[in-house]
Amino acid sequence: MRFTTSLAVLALVLSATAAQAQDDGKKKDEVAESAVPAPNVSVTKHKGVFGGKAIGYTATTGETYLKDKDGKPLAAIYATSYVKDGGDRKRPITFLYNGGPGSGSLWLHMGAFGPKRVVLPDAQDDGAPPYPVVDNPESLLDVTDLVFIDPVGTGFSHAIGKKDPKDYWGVSADAKSIAEYIRLWLNENGRWSSPKYIGGESYGTTRSVALINELEGSYNDVAVNGIILISTILDFGATAEVQGNEMPYIINLPSMATTAWYHKKMGSPPATVAEAAQQARAFAIGPYAAALLKGNQLSADERASVRAELARLTGLSETFVDRADLRITPGRFYKELLRDRGATIGRLDTRYTGKDYDAAGEEPDNDPSFYAIDGAYTAAMNSYARDDLGYKTDRSYVTIGGVSGWDWKLDGKSGRASEVYGSVAPYLGKALRENSGLKVFVGQGWYDFATPFFGAEYAMSRTGFDPARIHYHYYDAGHMMYVRPDDLRKLSTDIRAFISAR
After folding, report:
1. Residue 44 in contact with residue 58, Cβ under 8 Å?
2. b/e code 394-432 from CB counts within 10 Å (16+ = b)
3. Which residue from 6, 98, 318, 369 has the least number of CB within 10 angstroms?
4. In this prediction, what percent of the chain has a pLDDT beyond 70?
5. How much is the pTM?
6. CA atoms within 13 Å, Cβ hemisphere of 383
7. Cα–Cα dist 230/480, whole Å
């Protein structure tokens, strides 16, 4: 009897201990969750003149939490919204971001479409601070409200607690997180009936097309009026620089020709860069493509003819072209084109020139078109967010490079093909077929080698695309065409017309 009673007491003690442990665990979880502060947000009022119109607007900068199904915060998306005062819920709204992957939205924000912009010398190094930040009359605020978004791992955006930020680092995962943010923004601001535009630069164009699949690819649609693609890259398979893939040489050739034309290296140059581009396009998809596909079956006479025209278009010597077996890689081109002048050219913008440690190397030491601008943009974004917008944080703004181990596989795709050939372009074709009101703006710089203009044209001229709803615009600069003042004005005018022509 005593033994039975002892067992009963022991069971009660163990049960109480287990219950206490469970309660303690719940309390710890509650304490941990309560340790997550409310989203850090700053709201300020401003006025400006944009597109010739005086606009009063509210700027909201700060965090929005992405949460799990139980409401637990997983990540903070930092974004800045500019909304015209007056409460017009039918006014267009445009969501913008940059690329990388791993870049904050500061480039489009502080360089092109935000109400303030940083002033840089065109096609020259930005030097040391201070960098002027001025009113930007080219901002699109006269025709659309604006939201600049920094994906997780960029800008001030970050994972919360034990959440692994890598869970957001992939084509599909990234697009899902931005789609979730957009839905939350529309809920909070009551803007589901507004015309909607999404847009990005560089990898941001990849994100836009993956995002349209997340927004419109299910029954819980967020219908979109337009996609703004600036410096476009959709088909990574066609541009993959691997032995045996001939497409990159075809896609890159027109950009080599426009660059040679700009630096006065092209033989028998036409009067305009557009004509130079068209000559190179015709040669690239004609005699050049045929020669590359024939490989070592190419006849000596045909090789000589192709070599001569390739040398003329690129500004390189026939000897160099011959030694490269008619296949000029971008890195070699950056170094070789102006080798006789002791200079290299940029990747993001081939108008920029740099000076390497020596002139003997095969490829440049660095990209002069990137190190010429990064200091100014980083300083401008940090000072503007903290001073003008009143955002207080101890975090450092991640300009670029804040992510790693990007997952390039696409959701819903399986099998070997999806692993060896990556392209989001089919998503865009599908979206155009299934949304008759959707249109696409494509802005390309003649001197952009990071995302060559012929690559964009190739990706969106495949079967399944409606060419009537894809609008191309070209600019006399590179990847970030807005660093050139005339092209900033042209880009702003072109996009303003695109949004207004509903």
Report:
1. yes
2. eeebbbbebbeeebeebbeeeeeeeeeebbbbbbbbbbb
3. 6
4. 91
5. 0.92
6. 16
7. 8
pLDDT, mean over the chain: 93
Rounded-to-integer distance, Cα 317 and Cα 350, Å: 19
Residue with tokens 């445009």: 94
**Computed from CA positions of residues 419, 421, 425, 429, in that sequence, does the dihedral angle turn out positive or negative?**
negative
- CA-based nearest residue to 56, from 86, 81, 85, 89: 85
Here the tokens at position 200 are 């990005």
pLDDT one-digit tens code per residue, 346-367: 999 999 999 999 999 999 999 9
DSSP line for 301-357: HHHHHHHHHHHHHHT--HHHHHHTTT---HHHHHHHTTGGGT-EE-SS-TT-EE--S
Q: Looking at residues 298-310, what average pLDDT do you find?
A: 98
Spatial contact of 115 and 46, defined as CB atoms under 8 Å apart:
yes
Structure tokens at 359: 């002139």
Over range 402-418, report the average pLDDT. 76
Q: Is the predicted pLDDT of residue 3 greater than 50, yes or no?
A: no
Does pLDDT of 131 surpass 90? yes
Tell me the C-alpha distance between 289 and 250, whole Å.
7
Q: How many CB atoms lie within 10 A of CB 392?
A: 10
Q: At what angle do helices 300-314 and 247-262 cross, to 10 degrees?
A: 40
- Between strands 41-50 and 226-232, the pairing is unpaired
Render pLDDT for 470-494 as a digit per residue (tens, 0 to 9).
999 999 999 999 999 999 999 999 9
- Categorise residue 401: left if φ over 0, alpha if ψ from -120 to 50, beta otherwise: left
